[in-house]
Amino acid sequence: MTSPESPLILRAARREPTPVTPVWLMRQAGRYLPEYRAMRERHSFLELCRNPEAAAEVTLQPVRRFAVDAAILFADILLIVEPLDVGLEFAKGEGPVIHRPVRSEADVARLKPIDVESSVGSVFETVRLVRGALPPRVALIGFAGAPFTVASYVVEGGASRDYLHTKRLMYEAPAAWHRLMEVLADATATYLNGQIDAGAQLVQLFDSWVGALSPDDYRAYVLPHSRAVIRALRPGTPVIHFGTGTATLLPLMREAGGDVIGLDWRVDLDRGWSTLGPDVGVQGNLDPAVLLATPGTIRERVRAVLARAGGRPGHIFNLGHGVHQSTPVEHVGMLVDMVHELSAR
Ligand code: CP3
After folding, report:
1. Whole-angstrom distance, CA of residue 284 vs CA of residue 341
2. Which residues are registered as beta bridge partners of 140?
3. Ligand 1: which of 77, 152, 241 to mutate, judged by most atoms within 8 Å of the beta carbon?
4. Which residues of the chain have pLDDT under 50?
5. pTM of the prediction?
6. Strand 202-207 relative to strand 139-145: parallel, antiparallel, unpaired?
């Protein structure tokens, strides 16, 4: 049991009752915030991620503005692949680009090993700085990309719609695919344990694009690797396992592991939760687009998500995916306050 002074999110992740439903938002630190855009005028995205003082400052920005129950570490799921020497760049206005994508058995054989301390050691310092600055009621969430979602960038060379290169590697060179996934899973487990040791109180595994797969392909090509990451984590730190487009994958994601499963808005929260079963928490699942609507609509939709959760212990309120760049800042604050107000028991 956690103590009554523990952050609400930790209590919810352990399915203990809480006086209000805890809330944090994916991408709550980012470009919709003017103070973030000001930092970006002075630093490139990778510089921000790798400079512990700057990254800690960005992590804390939303906590100063909004009554969120957690801060999410400011970093990126792709930092970990830099030592693979695939040519990672965050191109202006384009998102991540990998200049030397990994598409064949020979490409996989050529990969340099990932030395976690040298590639993401600075992130551990960010975690220490943030934890030292946060009030005790606000939890710090660490994170990493799940092996599939990270592999999809490494193989596609950037964002994708159809994941054709990724699927071809999986189907045509399964041994190379599994090798790539093992390399990523090993590094990811070490990375997350480093964040936990540095002070992260929960960790989220982002499998953002896994909804591109059928259940059979998830079971064969992804599940063993996500499970290996989750099993390797220090016991006692709750794990949130998140993906989008996962309505048909939920039972398998549950099998892969996690104390809390993150749902997107394409599933009704109550149905998603009954598919998962009562012995796991759920996080979600307001459509981030609702934040572009009027306060009255936001309120109605918050109420609807809370109604589906039914006040059951184990619900963490979140968006179904990240805050969109064009979101009005005031709406984010309203959302957080509405969740607390409308869920008060
Ligand atoms: O507040 C937070 O959630 C913490 C910070 C965070 C970022 N990226 C900052 C970021 C987190 C948790 C991530 C994870 C991440 N990165 C994911 C999984 C989460 C998700 O939303 O699915 C993915 C797929 C990535 C890869 C990535 N990094 C993409 C696709 C992009 C482009 C995003 C876009 O909207 O254009 C990035 C860049 C990125 N990561 C930005 C931020 C704030 C924008 C960078 C900028 O300032 O230009």
Report:
1. 17
2. 71
3. 77
4. none
5. 0.97
6. parallel
